[in-house]
Amino acid sequence: DAGVIQSPRHEVTEMGQEVTLRCKPISGHDYLFWYRQTMMRGLELLIYFNNNVPIDDSGMPEDRFSAKMPNASFSTLKIQPSEPRDSAVYFCASSNNPQGTQYFGPGTRLLVL
Amino acid sequence: GENVEQHPSTLSVQEGDSAVIKCTYSDSASNYFPWYKQELGKGPQLIIDIRSNVGEKKDQRIAVTLNKTAKHFSLHITETQPEDSAVYFCAAPASSGNTPLVFGKGTRLSVIA
């Protein structure tokens, strides 16, 4: 298996633009997680899905953030409009057990100017 | 909910010395304790884990110890090498079955050659 795939790997955009991050989980994993990593706050869980259904989005910072999982092999995290404080590395991870091993993708490094 | 505290936040050791990273957790029902290693530009990857029915687990130069009474667990790296330089995260699950892992803030380990 190729592991968790994320795209793009790097994104530079201007404040106010829409940003869409993409994730393909490991086949067969029922759980998908979106994290944000910054120096100040560490690894923050934004939202997670089980069988394509959002279970807990309490970590989503504000209404500018939204996430979808239209099928078992694809998820998106969208920021609209983006702001400089959204600059961070965003990770997607998948698992077959929410309390077991999570497999992380390589991350998307986002810079909002 | 679960609260995971990790110390130290940074650690520098000479090559060949040992490194120890400690984590405490709050939920006495937690039963699974993984450690992740994040190398520069990559996502965190599981390196070792321990379940609550054992007190210690070893895998070559790394080991994890668990003290359930005191609610803390530690990562031990012996004979450190430059390639051990990375950020290490501990994690623990909350007691309810479907809530995800809670990660510590991370420890940046530098092995000085």
Q: In a few lines, what is going on in this structure?
A:
The complex is a heterodimer of chains A (113) and B (113). By secondary structure, chain A is mostly beta strands.
Structural summary, described in words:
The complex is a heterodimer of chains A (113) and B (113). Chain A has 113 residues and is mostly beta strands. Helices cover 0% and strands 55% of the residues of chain A. In chain A, the strands form two sheets. In chain A, strands 2, 4, 5, 6, 9, 10 and 11 form a seven-stranded mixed β-sheet that branches. A four-stranded antiparallel β-sheet of chain A has the order 1-3-8-7, with no helix packed on it. Chain A is globular, with a radius of gyration of 13 Å. In chain A, 38% of the residues are buried. Chain B has 113 residues and is mainly β. Chain B contains no helices and eleven strands. In chain B, the strands form two sheets. In chain B, strands 2, 4, 5, 9, 10 and 11 form a six-stranded mixed β-sheet that branches.
Oligomer: heterodimer
Give the distance, in angstroms, between the N- and C-terminal Cα atoms of chain B: 41 Å
- Please mark out the parts of chain A with pLDDT under 50 across 5 or more consecutive residues, or reply none: none
Largest interface (C-beta under 8 Å): A-B, 22 and 22 residues
Overall strand count of chain A = 11
Whole-number radius of gyration of chain A? 13 Å
Taking pLDDT < 50 over at least 5 consecutive residues as the criterion, the unreliable ranges of chain B are none
**Class derived from helix and strand content of chain A:** mainly beta
Spell out the key features of this protein.
heterodimer; A: 113 residues; mainly beta; seven-stranded mixed β-sheet; four-stranded antiparallel β-sheet; 0% helix; 55% strand; globular; B: 113 residues
List the helices and strands and how they pair.
The complex is a heterodimer of chains A (113) and B (113).
Chain A: E1 5-7, E2 10-13, E3 19-24, E4 31-38, E5 42-50, E6 53-56, E7 65-71, E8 74-79, E9 88-95, E10 103-104, E11 108-112
Parallel strand pairs in A: 2-11
Antiparallel strand pairs in A: 1-3, 3-8, 4-5, 4-9, 5-6, 7-8, 9-10, 9-11
Chain B: E1 4-7, E2 10-14, E3 19-25, E4 32-38, E5 45-51, E6 56-59, E7 62-67, E8 72-77, E9 86-93, E10 101-103, E11 107-112
